[in-house]
Design a protein that fits this description.
This protein is α/β, with parallel strands linked by helices and 485 residues long. It has 3 domains: 254 residues, Rossmann fold, CATH 3.40.50; 118 residues, Luciferase, Domain 3 (Luciferase, domain 3), CATH 2.30.38.10; 99 residues, ANL, C-terminal domain (GMP Synthetase, Chain A, domain 3), CATH 3.30.300. The chain contains 13 helices and 28 strands. Helix 1 runs antiparallel to helix 2 and helix 2 crosses helix 3.
Length: 485
């Protein structure tokens, strides 16, 4: 086992093939050596501003090279980057900064945080500061992303992994050395952050998009001969909507792995991608930022276990419990619980929340079932399920049916109070073509049982999902309940 600090890993990259590209955004490219020297100087500037080992540094920067340099500077000081969206409104950012209590906030307006140390986006360290290597320092936690969860209340998820890694161990994400990795998702979200940093540490050329655009992502995959990319189902849907002629007009022969996660992927959409790229290149991961455990499934496995998110990976265990906390029989839906082999509470700690646990096993709030071979199938989140006339309706299933309509860009299904049924299924649909509620209802009725078909529709033009493909059903439901009050 050869653990090396992130600072040492980056220094070794700068020594080996120093002129290889490391970071690219629309503003240009930095080589390994350029990124290393720039982050050394930035680290010294952060140190002069008071950042010390194990301090949090809130990084409120948009996707780009500057984001990576800020994180690299943190790690070289033994500090912990705490990424947040650069577009957060002031009250939300104030709440997160109060929760994290960082030594430094990067990218926020200084007037929002009187009495705190803040540097703006585009901050340039004094040129008089040295670019030389810094003394080795290892943070107790290498990352501390935020999550609103299904309730919308912010929490910080502090990793239990220190800022040092053994890169001689095979990557569980199947990221290889010295390849090219495309980042289409927001870096404040754990998935793009974790995946791209794992690629960075392995010398991958990281090509980062400021914001996802369907056809632009295909252009970048071709231009840079990308080896590994992570899309969420919303992105997959938008690429699919480009049409077969456009999709097949780009050379994606270098692409080895397309990994998707973060939201349920409709089976019809996954089949389209497998048909397009081939099953060997389409992979899926299920897990949480908390890191208690995860599953992985290849395209070949998925074709044999349609709808599954895979088997638990080595290093964790999973089980499905019924409402009484008993292990559910195979094939029976219950709540999914996870336990890392290292024991409860070893992979993370919360700031601003408490884990939902039973005897050390923890739940992320997902419902699902396991087949006889141990493959996990998710149905929905426990908090999102709609009880309609005594029957369980899983929003993700209804959304998958809606999203298969060519005029639908995204959808969100919620339950609203109903005197007769207890709850009625209500669909909020982002449309991009000419379609009405009657047509959408007929479309869904041809695909789902009658009790699952939305009784009411709300057609909107604004996006329902964020850049990470997440939808906040609770917030949307509360807004509609408030409007009815």
């Amino acid at each position: 086992m050869a653990l090396r600090s992130i600072g040492e890993i980056l220094a070794r990259l700068a020594e080996r093939d120093s002129h290889r590209p490391l970071l690219t955004d629309p503003g240009g490219t930095l080589t390994r050596r350029q990124a290393h020297l720039a982050s050394n100087r930035l680290a010294r500037a952060y140190a002069e501003l008071g950042v010390r080992r194990n301090d949090f540094v809130t990084v409120a920067l948009p996707n780009g090279v500057e984001f990576y340099l800020a994180c690299m500077a943190c790690w070289k000081l033994g500090a912990t980057p705490q990424p947040v969206s650069a577009r957060l409104p002031r009250p939300e950012l104030e709440a997160l900064v109060a929760l994290a209590d960082p030594a430094l906030t990067v990218g926020a307006p200084a007037e929002w945080f009187p009495g705190r140390t803040v540097v703006p986006a585009g901050f340039a360290p004094p040129t008089a500061l040295s670019e030389g290597d810094l003394p080795e320092a290892v943070a107790a936690s290498w990352k501390a992303p935020t999550s609103g969860g299904s309730t919308g209340r912010p929490k910080i998820i502090v990793s239990g992994t220190p800022g040092a890694f053994d890169l001689d161990e095979p990557s569980p994400l199947r990221i290889e050395f010295d390849r090219v990795l495309l980042v289409p998702g927001p870096l404040y979200h754990n998935g793009p952050f974790l995946f791209s940093m794992s690629g960075l540490f392995r010398g991958n050329h990281i090509v980062v998009m400021p914001r996802f655009d369907a056809e632009e992502s295909l252009k970048l995959l071709e231009r840079w001969q990308v080896d590994w990319v992570n899309f969420v189902p919303t992105m997959m849907h938008r690429i699919w909507r480009l049409g077969e002629r456009t999709r097949k007009g780009y050379d994606l022969s270098a692409l080895r792995i397309m990994l998707h996660l973060a939201a349920p992927c409709p089976p019809w959409l996954k089949e389209e991608w497998i048909r397009w790229l081939g099953p060997a290149r389409v992979h899926e991961l299920y897990g949480g930022t908390e890191g208690q455990g995860s599953t992985w499934i290849t395209g070949e496995e998925w074709l044999a276990h349609r709808g599954s998110v895979g088997k638990p990976v080595p290093g964790c265990r999973m089980k499905v419990l019924d409402g009484q906390g008993r292990e559910a029989p195979r094939g029976t839906v219950g709540e999914v619980y996870l336990l890392p082999d290292t024991g409860p509470g070893t992979t993370y700690r919360y700031i601003g929340a408490e884990a939902k646990s039973r005897d050390g096993w923890e739940s992320l709030g997902d419902l699902g079932w396991m087949d006889e071979e141990g493959y996990l199938y998710l149905t929905d989140r426990h908090t999102d399920m709609i009880l309609c006339g005594g029957a369980n309706v899983y929003p993700a299933e209804v959304e998958a049916a809606l999203d298969s309509h060519p005029a639908v860009r995204s959808s969100c299904v919620i339950g609203l109070p109903d005197e007769d049924m207890g709850n009625r299924v209500h669909a909020i649909v982002e449309v991009v073509g000419s379609v009405d509620a009657t047509a959408l209802q007929a479309h869904v009725a041809g695909r789902l049982a009658g009790y699952k078909v939305p009784r009411t529709f709300e057609l909107v033009s604004e996006p329902l999902r964020d850049d990470a493909g997440k939808v906040r059903r609770t917030a949307l439901r509360q807004a509609r309940l408030a409007a009815q009050a």
